[in-house]
Amino acid sequence: MGTRCRILGKASSINVRKVLWTCEELGLSYQQEDWGSGFQSTHTPEFLALNPNAQVPVLIDDAGVLWESNSICRYLANLHPGSGLLPTAPRARALVEQWMDWQATELNPSWSYAFMGLVRQHADYQDSQRIGASLLAWNAKMQILERQLERSGAYVLGEDFSLADIVLGLSVNRWKMTPMEHPAYPAVAAYYERLSLHPGFMLHGRNGIA
Fold first, then answer.
1. Which of 200, 176, 179, 203 is nearest to 190 (CA)?
2. How confident is the model at residue 1, as a pLDDT?
3. Which of 105, 104, 96 is nearest to 78 (CA)?
4. How confident is the model at residue 3 (pLDDT cuts 50, 70, 90)?
5. Rounded to whole angstroms, how far apart are CA atoms 166 and 22?
6. Tens digits of residue pLDDT in 177-200
7. What structural domains and CATH numbers belong to the chain?
8. What is the pLDDT of residues 43-73, one digit of tens each?
9. Predicted confidence (pLDDT) per residue in 114-123, tens digit
10. I need a labelling partner for 61 at 20 to 30 A (CA). Which of 7, 71, 148, 200 fits?
11. Measured between alpha carbons, how far is 51 from 43 in angstroms, rounded to an integer?
12. Whole-model pTM?
């Protein structure tokens, strides 16, 4: 992008952090603005005109407005194909997107109730049985990632870092920081330390925010 982009969304949001870390990996200049609970409301006419779902993040650049975090990450990577974050070969690209979609549609729903109850301390998420069921489901999904990392080695899809590692790395950080019993997943533990060699992860992932 020729000019700085705007990223609307509070930096504590895991989905906003996907975009911020992607920008760091790509060396992009951006302006991050705090929107969401505790900050500017996403339910104002101004924001709803940008994203009718009233959710963050929203990216604004010279080409227009874009929402949905994984789509924004793909878009930014596509603008910089030499980065290697999103392969151009159809099969390799599909595998990266497969794990990105898995994070959004399978992994995220598993932790939703437990995270809101244990970390956010939300009054509507305090049913102990539902928290327990969510934790079981969460650890089961993390075991899938453990098995994949046992096969792949350094990163989710092998030796090359990709967008899949950005979205999954933030999810691993959330899992590790949530006060719960964590099964011994050595491949995930090694992966977490490997991701910590990336300045963008230390800035937007392993930074004390779950």
1. 176
2. 42
3. 96
4. low
5. 7
6. 999 999 999 999 999 999 999 999
7. 6-79 (3.40.30.10), 90-202 (1.20.1050.10)
8. 999 999 999 999 999 999 999 999 999 999 9
9. 999 999 999 9
10. 200
11. 9
12. 0.95
**DSSP symbols for the chain:** --SPEEEES-TT-HHHHHHHHHHHHHT--EEEE-BSTTSB-TTSHHHHTT-TT--S-EEEETTEEEESHHHHHHHHHHH-GGG-SS-SSHHHHHHHHHHHHHIIIIIHHHHHHHHHHHTS--TTS--HHHHHHHHHHHHHHHHHHHHHHHHH-SBTTBSS--HHHHHHHHHHHHHHHSSS-----HHHHHHHHHHTTSHHHHHHTSSS--
Residue matched to tokens 């789509």? 71
